Amino acid sequence: MRSSFRPLARVQTPGLVFLVVLSGAVSAGIWKFAAADLDRPQATDRQVALLVSSLMRRDHFSKHSLDDQISERSLNMFLKNLDPMKVYFLQSDVEEFKRQKHELDDMIKKGDISFAYTVYKRLLQRIDERVRTVDDLLKEEFDFSQDEVIITDGDTAEFPKTAEEAADRWRKRIKYDLLMLKDEKVEGQEARDRLARRYHSFAKRMQGTDSDELLQLFLTSITTSFDPHTTYMSPKSLDNFRIMMRLNLDGIGAALRMEDGYTIVSKVIPGGAAEKAGELKPEDRVVSVGQGEDGEMVDVTEMNLDDVVGLIRGKAGTVVRLGVIPAGGGEQKVYKITRAKIELSDSEARSVIFEEGKKANGQPYKVGVIDLPSFYMDMEAAQAGNENFKSTTRDMRIILEKFRKSGVDAVVLDLRRNGGGSLTEAINLTGLFIDEGPVVQVKDYDQRVRVYDDTEQGVAWDGPLVVLTSKFSASASEIFAGAIQDYDRGLVIGDSSTHGKGTVQSLLDLGSQMFKIPNPPNLGALKITIQQFYRPNGDSTQKRGVLADITLPSLTDHMDVSEADLDFAVEFDRVPAATYSKYDMRSPDVVGKLAEASKNRRESQKEFQKLKEDIAQYVELKERKTAPLNEDKFFAERKQFNANKEEEKQYEEQLNGRDEVVKRDYYFNEILNITVDYLNLIDNRRIAATVN
Question: Is the pTM here over 0.90, yes or no?
């Protein structure tokens, strides 16, 4: 379904910052082990800072001045990003920095970022001091019978006033680290060696920060003081963003993570070059990388992850050699892998058909399930006029056609881990389920409201539709779910509300902004909030999200991961409703009966009762700001609050994907039960009839 909305590059990210590696693509960060770069700001830094400050004052949706309030916010954000747990800086450092809390705005307007260098050099000094403290502490014995506690909430903590207080803070931190490692069955000298590597590796990475990374950290502290989604991307971050939107790159097909100074293989991508070679396995440690058949093997131990990725990534058809210590231990081996084009299939739409329940004729219902992790579109290919550019709507149309041919009775669209993406694709995808009409309203900097429609007649799927959401469903996902709900086109099931991101960002290439020439230099980009969007009924999704028709209990519903939990988020508001016709697929009577039946089922299921207990424990644990350092109390608490590990598992699954299209656990089985009830209640009606 084609809409009249054709932005150059409208993008979004949920209100969480994660360093995620997908097939060798790192979402953020530049680390080149070039500490000399931090002697002084680089020649281009002034021009980039001047341009960012000008664009913020001219284009940001809030119309907020770059003033003393933003200056003070920026300083606090910068310090929080550098030292979130307040374990490196001293209180005297912070007081010194805060003497300039109302001067940063004036400095940025002049392109002066010297303050960032002053603060960062002090951080490196403090890190070196703390590492020496760690080395001394790891030689000591600790008394784990003492009734001590450690503050685990950075907002509650205060910066240490003296070096002695800092040392005592680190004594408690090391005790806590040793207890955590013991919980993981790592004890004795091995635990101490691991902690030494951890903090030395961290110090080395921080010393290796280059000017691009520092500029990104500092300018983003300023831009996020306007709203949490306005950020400066360094040149490398911009390249990685474009890779993720295209959903392909050249590489070996492996997801990597950094752990205690080692590069660990966390996943081998199905169908990628590494899997085809057959040697690289999850949990293998990559310790060296060589180019071609006989290039020098470069030691990558304690090298920053982004640099390792840069060495491994390369042109399709070329050879890279990896020095690997297998997961089970043993001697180092060298694996030769020929790089290939990798499709990031974890972000593509995938489908499966389940048979569930019974129709009146005794045959089972067929439920088509689609997992959609993002609203993707290859913007560069689309702008170049490539008719076969990669897009969500194209892929979904193919799946829905397959469903029709297979006799599917209902479609379940899973957006639980969909953080958004292209707004254009959200509009076009909505058009696969409605026959023309407004999908989203957009208010811009000048308070003008425009309505963007699906303008193509017809639908790709006219049967029952269920949309699954969670607190991780953000931005473009919320536009889609909100429109489906407003049109009474289908049901929304999941967490009580979605993420609540209702703003639109434009990606401004700074090289193109600064140099009006073909192929300008890559100076990074400013992702800036320029608009707020609204549902057809006039409600914003901002800070409120899309409320579920039927709420199922989950841990994610109680996590502080929504837009409302972020600093300086734009406020919720409304605009007048657009004109549209509703479908008879979501009456209050039907929703009420489905919710009641689901509640009755859940009350008799032990899995949901166990989940209820885990949620209560998780909420209690989340409200605690300290952890015991008495060994007996520590492990009693760890045993009691097992929801903590469940939280980690849910984060992993939500963010890093899964091998199967959907996990058939008790939670999803209840979704299928609701879907079958839904089919029985509405008698398989189609959407031809509308209610004005």
Answer: no
